[in-house]
# Entry
Amino acid sequence: MMYSSLLQFSSGLIDVVAISYQRRYNKLHRSIYGLSYDLYVLELAGSSLSVYSTLNYLWSPLVRVQLSRRYPLFYPLDGQGIPLSVLLLIKDVLIGVSCLAVLRQLVIYRYTKHIHQSISKLCIVVLLAASTFGILTYAFSSAHLPNNNSGLFGVFFIEHVNYTSVIGHILSALRFLPQLSLNWFGSSTSGLSSKFVLVSFVNKVLYLLIRNFVPHSAEFYRIPFNTTPFSVLLLELFSIVGILYQAQLLYLNNKPHLPKGK
# Structure
């Protein structure tokens, strides 16, 4: 369990390094031309939801009780606590802070963006839907507390926390897709740091190779709840490969041609 958490924590630190390369690129050029707002908004939202769910798993007595009642064999109240990794919590916090730094640059250098750069309507709809769902499940699960363990429509508080964690993973998994589409609109990868793309690609490849080919054992019920699922990592890798293909082959010699927006 510790091995898996340490490996994913190390991968997260490399993600932070990749983001710092992008931030340095923006600062050197004093420009955010071609950079997707949605990428960093979705990543910030995903890491924030992961931190929220992890803190609830760590410190909510209600989550502990409901989990032990649902799976008494795996998580008894008199046994070990909910399996969680503090290292992965730190990783999510660091990624969130790094995204905030880039979002700050997107505001400061907004006069350099082109006409297709902004927080997209689709991103806003997705975030509103996720927020509405989270608020409703929280309200339903808390409606009968503390007199009744379950809430309206049979929604338990632990389900609200689980749903929040899943939504966070989905947002993180989709974060590179807006950058792919923005590159396609402009037929260019101008504005993307080559080091950001390369480090992100190498990081995902090495992580997946080590994860799958180096033997490690852990019972499924002792895997930390805040571990990033394999499917999320795989989708991130496919997205990064797409961006790398655009940067190194498809749009290699293309110059930026889109006019700057307001």
